[in-house]
# Entry
Amino acid sequence: MKIPAALLLMGITSFMCLGQGVVIPDEYWIEPNTKGLDSGTAKDPFYGNSQASFDRVMSALVTKGNVVVH
# Structure
């Protein structure tokens, strides 16, 4: 099985940055259990504990264009 280098690098970069507060352009995180500032970073993901809050975050992200949501 061949994995494109770009996908492999993206996965490694995302894994290495988890919990570091690093902002990766056009990549956002959303979780049901967070109590931070709701900035969408790996360290401080968006709050998505209900259908309404998840939909609010997702509708705001689609206006940004091509993004990756974790």
Summary: The longest strand covers residues 27-28. DSSP finds two helices and four strands in the chain. The longest helix spans residues 5-17. Helices lie at 5-17, 51-62.
